[in-house]
Design goal:
Helices cover 38% and strands 29% of the residues. The protein is α+β, with helices and mostly antiparallel strands and 180 residues long. The radius of gyration is 15 Å and the shape is globular.
Length: 180
C-alpha cells in the first residue's frame, strides 16, 4: 500500500536525487534539463510555508508533490501575476494570486499513474492550507494530469501560456480552497 509522508525542506533537499528521478520518468525529461530543474527545486525549499509530501511504496519513492505560499519576488508568481493582470485585470490577478498556495510540482512514476496517487497527493497537500486559492501550471494538452485537475475543480486562468524564454504551451489553472 502506498503511504504519503510529509518532509521538511531539509529532508526534501537530501532526497533531491530521488525527486529528480521520479520527475525525469514522469515527464520524460531530457537529461540535459535535469541539473537546472534540480537547482530550481532546491531553491523552492526556501520559500515561505514550503510543504512536501512523498508517496512511498516499501520505502521507494513513487511520487511527490510540493508547494508553498506564493509571494511577490518569486519568479513564477510574478510572471503569472503580470500576465493575468494584463489579460483579466489587476483585481482578478490579486484575487487568484494575492493569497495563493502555489502547487509547484506533482509527479508520479509512470508505473503508478492512474491509480489515485496524484489525487491523494494533491488532496493531502492542500488539506488545511490557509490560503484562499491553489494555483499551478501544467502542459496545455489533454493529459491525465489536466483531467485530474479539472475533476478537483481547477479552471484555466491563462491558456495557452508561454513562459518568458520558453516555447512550450502551458495552462495556468486555479481553484479555491478548500478543495471540493
Amino acid at each position: 500500500m502506498i503511504e504519503l509522508r510529509g518532509a521538511e525542506a531539509a529532508e526534501f533537499d537530501t532526497r533531491l536525487d530521488e525527486v529528480i528521478d521520479v520527475y525525469a520518468q514522469a515527464m520524460r525529461a531530457p537529461v540535459e534539463q535535469l541539473p537546472g530543474r534540480k537547482s530550481i527545486m532546491r531553491s523552492h525549499g526556501s520559500y515561505p510555508a514550503f510543504q512536501c509530501l512523498f508517496a512511498e511504496l516499501y520505502g521507494r519513492t513513487v511520487g511527490f508533490a510540493y508547494g508553498f505560499h506564493g509571494a511577490h519576488g518569486q519568479w513564477w508568481h510574478d510572471v503569472v501575476h503580470r500576465a493575468l493582470a494584463e489579460q483579466q485585470g489587476r483585481e482578478a490577478a490579486d484575487a487568484w494570486l494575492g493569497n495563493a498556495f502555489e502547487l509547484a510540482e506533482i509527479h508520479v512514476h509512470p508505473d503508478y499513474q492512474g491509480k489515485g496517487v496524484g489525487r491523494a497527493l494533491i488532496k493531502a497537500l492542500c488539506a488545511g492550507r490557509q490560503e484562499r486559492s491553489v494555483v499551478l501550471s501544467t502542459h496545455d494538452q489533454p493529459t491525465i494530469a489536466r483531467h485530474l485537475y479539472r475533476k478537483l475543480g481547477f479552471v484555466d486562468l491563462l491558456s495557452p501560456f508561454v513562459f518568458p524564454g520558453g516555447h512550450e504551451l502551458y495552462a495556468i489553472a486555479g481553484t479555491t480552497l478548500p478543495l471540493r
